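#struct-pred

JT: dropping the chains for the assembly here, can someone run the whole complex?
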Amino acid sequence: MRVSLLLPFVALVACASLSGGRDPHYVCLYDTVWEATMETMKGYSVMTENKSNGIIETAWIEMEGKTRPYGIFGREGFGNRERARLTVAVKKENDISSVSVLETRQRWHARGGVSQQAMKWWPIEPSEEVMEEVTGKLNARLKEKGCETARDAVAEM
Amino acid sequence: MKMRSLLGALVLFSLPAMPVWAENLTPEEIKKLVDEAVEKRLQEHERREGTMERREESTVPAAEPGIGALPEVGRERRAERQQPLSFGSSGSGRLVYAKPFVSFPKAIVGGYFDIQYRAHRKPVLETGYEDIRNGQGTTNGFDQQRFVPFIYADITEHVKFASELEIEHGIRGSNDIEIGLEFAHIDYLIHERVNVRGGIILIPLGKFNLLHDGPLNDLTDRPLVSQLVIPTTMSETGAGLYGTFYPGRTGKLDYEVYVTTGPCGYQNTGEPRVTEFDGTKNSRQRKCFSTDGLDINNGKAVSGRLAFSPMLGIEVAGSGYYGNQSPSSYNPLSIFAIDWTLQKGPFELIGEAAWAYARNNTRAIPGNTFNGIAPGSLLTGIGTLNPLGTPPERMQGFYVQGNYHFMPSFLTKLSPKRFGEGSTFTAVVRYDRVNLNLDNKAENAGELEQISFGLNYRPVEDAVLKMSYQYLPKSFNPNDGQRIHDSAFVISAATYF
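RK: done, full complex below.
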């Protein structure tokens, strides 16, 4: 079956596609990294936190997104509503800990006409700025606590 | 101006009451002082007037819908105090303007439109004049295929309405002009995980049926599998649920499930409408002979789609449809489909595969009145090209399409307005294949194969100019009933407006 021949290719592309999160590694104790991450995330409407699996999730925050006119006349019909949430995963990897920061961003009525799909959230590219901001704050906080990023530690050796 | 003079006079009169100031000030300073005081008083006066106006406004009795001045659409808003339109509302002809979305415009009117020109190597285009033209159609022509106005309304935060009115080949002014509601439904949003929908609903069977608009798609012609195995645009009257779950950090799971009127697989004579020539196209409710498009039996169809996206840019979905298509027996039509979308940077790989099974479509149904065929007899030579064949029971097809989006930098430099941000070119290649009668190993009108190469230009995301070359190693000429080898050049434009 020709379709089944495509499946490995589909799986291959699927595995190759990553959604562009931040994934810094720190030479530091897990507990220290977890605490610093929790402190960093304080201002982000944390909804769930679980130290045992290292996951911190924020609530969906709605906001005005970039202007996205529709149609040939560039009308404003469906507004620019966007929402985003952050998920942060802290993992222990031997002597170092990693923190993965990922924003999931969606847009109400992504594009085009009114189709039946108008009434739902559509995934769009995450905000690089937001993920950069969280990672930057976390780096600064961990530096205060004497933790180095794995890259800096390697450079010093 | 009058108010300013009066206030100025008052301030001047009050100056002697402030001797310390009056004696030590120069005339210029006094003038400046007066101007400032007048400005201040004016502002206070305006503030008081504004408050009074608002108070007066709030004492106006609630307006009865349909009475009073016509609302200025887009500026006047339907205030909370306005009484709702009901059978109890009174008024003259103006009552027609008392609709909520005239007095409080939260409805959006838009639509899409397309125009195409196609040139085939063989005379395959159907004109209806084939008898005069020695059984041949034409090779080329313009076609304004779809003009689709839509209306969308945010009734409340939780109640939404959406509809599309489709006018196909609208140049025809009489008899068989195709106008129909492609979909029209009301949604009640309960929670992101569960929402209710009722009305004329696009059946969630494959992704293409849900996102079939001309301006969205990168080739002019719809995929063969989405025309003939999944009869896009397939919509039925019914109700159901839809929602979204978020498993894991990046996962997304969308579902839709509906109960609808069901398919219409037979003419009112009992002749099958699922054929080797048209696939399942004519089994749609919109093509049915039934009065007012009502159900032809007491059975209903069930359809659903489950789409899983493990991360942004990847989605794989399975969908199905099942319903009895016979008015006098149990001959269900079932269609199953899988679809996939993969996006990585400027590349996209999309596709769909579908399988259909029209059970007992090869035999006459009870109560049929055509050709004097006894119920249960094989329908030899009907709905098939092969005179010894039978109408199809099983059919299958798929398409795979690759897109590459790009914008040459020299064009952006040449004309940033035309080729700047938001505009893009897309190179497309698609392979299509269907077999509309898997049991017919002889001449089969529904065994089709097509390879399309296309290039698009989108000046903005929602408008597109397309051109494509189609190579059709396995095709069919409906005018003379011959299997042919064909090719075509198609150019078109489509836009949302």
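JT: nice. Residues 10-23, 50-81 of chain B have pLDDT under 50 and may be disordered. The helical segments of chain B are 2-14, 19-24, 27-59, 100-103, 225-228, 409-414, 416-419.
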